Amino acid sequence: MKYWLGIDFGTSGVRAIAIDEMSEVVALTKVDYEIGDWQTWEISLYQVITDLPIEIRKNVQKIVIDGTSATILICDRQGQPSLPTMLYSDTCSSEILAEVQAIAPQQHLVLSTSSSFAKLLAMTKLLTKKSLSFASQSPWYFLHQADWLGYLLHGKLGVSDYHNALKLGYDQLILAYPDWLLAWNRQNPAIVLPKIFTPAETVGTVQEAIAVKLGLSSNCEIGAGTTDSNAAFLASVGKNPPELGTAVTSLGSTMVLKVLNDHPINHANYGIYSHRFEYGQTACLWLVGGASNVGGAVLKHFFSNQDLKELSDRIDPDVAISLDYYPLLKAGDRFPVNDPQLKPRLEPRPNNSVDFLHGLLESMARIEAQGYALLQQLGVTPIQKIYTVGGGAQNQVWTKIRHRHLQIPVISSPQSEAAYGSALLANTK
């Protein structure tokens, strides 16, 4: 038997899914990890692989890893991170944003305090201050989360994919770095921008020592990665190419909206961006969407999993509640309101916990509907159906509230794990 392995490094945990030639799941492993600590990434990567049955490991043909978009590292020539990780949710200072605005074109999607390019500028400054011999110790490799994890397996530094590289500034229309980014790199030659591959395109085979350590075949290929939300989209729609207008909402720690469209739409003012989508298609399509900081992390801040279940059961999803929140854990959102200073709105808070949870769920559904309405206003294909993945997809009360706001069929995906989408990618390239 032959198998393909997808590994998802999401916002809250790591999952590995192995599939067979019929795209059926044959094994799933999962572990917790600390997303802000890159040392736990390596431990978790090896654990989810070695927890798989040995017969599957020996026959894995290819591995693809997805990671959180705009979670980045700067590494030395040995692949050792030289600074603390900057996470997808981290933001840079207004001074850094002003530098980005002076370098990148107007309305470019990197014009955000949370973009990978803004973080690259911030980390370059930190590295320069940290090391008096910054230039002499070069090269310094800029890597996304999925890039570094892939490096641990194939051993090749300076490799990324065009999904992860989007927020760095890579142009997915022409499949090349734009002139403004190359000009910046010429002025900062100590930084190595990664060579860009198509997601899941083979980068190399697993290193011999790693293959022995993990029980993998020495012929096991390692593909370029993708982002966790793009992998979740693939998991939702399955192995058959989806129709235009298919949408997916990922309800994890955050809320990510994506719609399959026939042309890209990018709008920095609204935090909207487009990913190139070539999965099983003869023509290039685009995943248009955005990511909001509202989501499950807010719910888990106030309620335990048991509380969420018990309190949700006491909510009538057909009756709206008048509470109007913008539920954030800290200031700042990216979409549909792109405002790094946006303050959380969690008042008034009723004494009744059921009403408070109802208000949170109602408000998040309202923000989701606002996001899809904005996407359609800006020209996406009319939305036909919305798949839902992530932990929030299991809350049936929330699903009914969302349906009331969206007025579009809301479907729970048969496969809700992003790792399944990465496994599908591994078996298509």
Could you characterize what this model shows?
This protein is α/β, with parallel strands linked by helices and 429 residues long. The protein has helices spanning 38-50, 54-57, 94-103, 116-130, 145-154, 179-187, 208-214, 228-237, 296-302, 305-312, 353-377, 396-406, 418-426; strands at residues 3-9, 13-19, 25-32, 60-67, 72-75, 140-144, 159-161, 191-192, 195-197, 202-205, 221-223, 226-227, 246-251, 255-261, 273-277, 285-292, 385-389, 410-412. Strands 1, 2, 3, 4, 10, 11 and 12 form a 7-stranded mixed sheet that branches. It has a 6-stranded mixed sheet with strand order 15-16-14-13-17-18, sandwiched between helices. The chain is globular, with a radius of gyration of 21 Å. The protein starts with a strand and ends with a helix. The model has no long low-confidence stretch (mean pLDDT 92).
Topology:
Elements: E1 3-9, E2 13-19, E3 25-32, H1 38-50, H2 54-57, E4 60-67, E5 72-75, H3 94-103, H4 116-130, E6 140-144, H5 145-154, E7 159-161, H6 179-187, E8 191-192, E9 195-197, E10 202-205, H7 208-214, E11 221-223, E12 226-227, H8 228-237, E13 246-251, E14 255-261, E15 273-277, E16 285-292, H9 296-302, H10 305-312, H11 353-377, E17 385-389, H12 396-406, E18 410-412, H13 418-426
Parallel strand pairs: 1-4, 4-11, 4-12, 6-8, 7-9, 13-17, 17-18
Antiparallel strand pairs: 1-2, 2-3, 5-6, 10-11, 13-14, 14-16, 15-16
